[in-house]
Amino acid sequence: MMMTQEQAFLKSRKQLQAMEAYVKAASSQGERIDKVEREVFSQLLLVGLTLLEGFVAEQGDGDVGPTLEQEDRTLRRSEERHSRRYLSIFGELSLRRWVYAQREGQKIEAAPLDAKLSLPAGEFSYVLEDWQQRLCVKESFHEAVTSLRTLLGVAPSERAAEQMNQRLAQSAARFHLHHGTPPAKEEGELLVATADCKGVPMRRPLGERVRSGPRRGKGEKANKKQMAYVGAVYSIDRYRRTADDVLDEIQRRERRKDRPAPQHKRVWAEMTQVKEGESHSGRVQLFAELAVACYERDPRQRKTLICLLDGEAALWTMQGQWLGQSVGILDLFHVLERLWLVAHCLHPEKSRGAEAFVTHHLRMLLEGKVGYVIGNFKRLLNADQVRGSGRRTVQAVITYYENNRQHMRYDEYLAAGYPIGSGVAEGACRHLVKDRLEQTGMRWAVDGAQAMLHTRAVYLNGQWDELLEYHIQNEQATLYQQLAA
Q: Is 444 within 8 Å of 203 (Cβ atoms)?
């Protein structure tokens, strides 16, 4: 039988007195401070559990009479009180309360005490869910559950933590679309959308996991990957520079102190999923969401919209379809990578010759002389200065530059103060995807990976508390709206 609130208060006072007695004894015995700290914390959890029991006791047992009238039917009180488990950060409570249904033994349709306490749909408290998921978006479910259990002595199972993440992800997806826009006074002059993709290691179907021999065959891999399409939208002030300014930053590998910072950066990721037998492209979904975000942040299109991408043709197709009004810019660092590939066909790695080659041609690109660079590379082939795999490398770089030439007007971009590097997308791929979904030994199902990407994106965007409140309010409305009415 649950204690009354007065009994709970009395018990908590005795527990606090016991804590005082322990601290006095520890002082006289010269106990190590860390041991005292752990013991005091453990006893504080017991006090918290006692006070929580007292709070629940004061709310009654949910008895509102023999019947409960709903809009279209009459519900009858159960013949005896039903127990419900509630796992809080302090420990477990068992709530015995009256419930209502149309007839005894049928599905419970109302539990007035649950509504009065605003209990969650499951047995885990919202605070426990919050703390557990904060750990889950940063480390494996196993490590997250172990960490919470070590700290509190209570935690859901790994399976429960994963299911919790998937439910929260549903709220995260809706929250992402309806969370509102940043204040206009905090926005920069330019609006920037950027996208990239990153492979996620997937679980193989069960039939593919069984090998006929102890070793894998040639070309057979332990896992396969599926692309997560990662995007970001942010605003930033113009930052006019010269080719020399950019070269100086690259050579020193140091960002200039006066460079403006991105404002209200929002990252997101989508994977291709099969729903009701139909495949829904993650790439299309991402660009649709980027387009909506750009419109919401600049509905009158007063800002110049920049779209920064690498050279993948499929991404540029999406840019044309969803962000056609934007200024498309090829990420400079992908361009620079290919300059180094050509340089190493002619000069040893880390040599001065390679560095001079890259500096010379990068300056030409930054000055808008893309045609000259392509011409120089073609002359290398015609003069037979590179052979074998080197020829194939140079030809691939030529093709890459020719295909993306319309997005390589760097002299114009620098003069206009546009950003020319997609470091935000690269960082998002690393922080959002790689740092969590590619930890050692991890393999994902699509639903689980997408759920983690959605919740982790909100966490990295600094909107976690807002998401939790949004999730709680929506769940409470679903659970108790009819009873409240």
A: yes
- β-bridge pairing 327-330 and 304-309: parallel
pTM: 0.89
Q: Label the pairing between strands 273-275 and 224-236.
A: unpaired
- Tokens representing 30? 């010269």
Sign of the CA dihedral running 11, 17, 18, 20? positive
User: What does DSSP assign to residue 219?
Assistant: T
Tokens linked to 443:
């393999």
423: Cα within 13 Å, side-chain hemisphere: 6
- Please state, in angstroms and rounded to a whole number, the distance separating the CA atoms of residues 366 and 410: 5
b or e along 70-104 (b: 16 or more beta carbons within 10 Å of the residue's beta carbon)? Answer: eeeeebebbeebeebebbbbbbebebebbbbbeee
Dist CA 324 CA 229 (whole Å): 19
- The conformational region for residue 253 under phi > 0 = left, psi -120 to 50 = alpha, else beta, is left
Q: CA-to-CA distance for 20 and 3, rounded, in angstroms?
A: 24
Q: Which helix (H) or strand (E) holds 144?
A: helix 141-152
Gap between the Cα atoms of 259 and 72, Å rounded: 64
The whole-angstrom separation of Cα 111 and Cα 84 is 11
Q: Please say whether the beta carbons of 398 and 374 come within 8 A.
A: yes
Using N-to-C axis directions, what is the helix angle for 158-178 and 464-484, rounded to 10°? 90
Burial class (CB in 10 A: 0-12, 13-18, 19+), 171: buried
H/E run at residue 316: helix 313-322
**Which positions of the chain have pLDDT values less than 70?**
1-2, 205-223, 253, 482-485
Residue found under tokens 């991404």: 315
User: Rounded to 5 degrees, what angle do the CA atoms 203, 450, 176 make?
Assistant: 175
Q: Is 124 helix (H, G, I), strand (E, B) or coil?
A: strand
DSSP 444: B
- In this predicted structure, what is the pLDDT of residue 386? 85
CA distance 406 to 387: 29
The C-alpha R_g of the chain, in whole angstroms, comes to: 30
The CA distance from 231 to 193, in Å, is 7
The predicted-structure confidence for 50-89, as pLDDT tens digits, reads as follows 999 999 999 999 999 999 998 888 999 999 999 999 999 9
DSSP structure class, residue 364: H
All structural domains of the chain with their residue ranges: 1-57, 183-206+222-434
What confidence score (pLDDT) does residue 223 get? 60
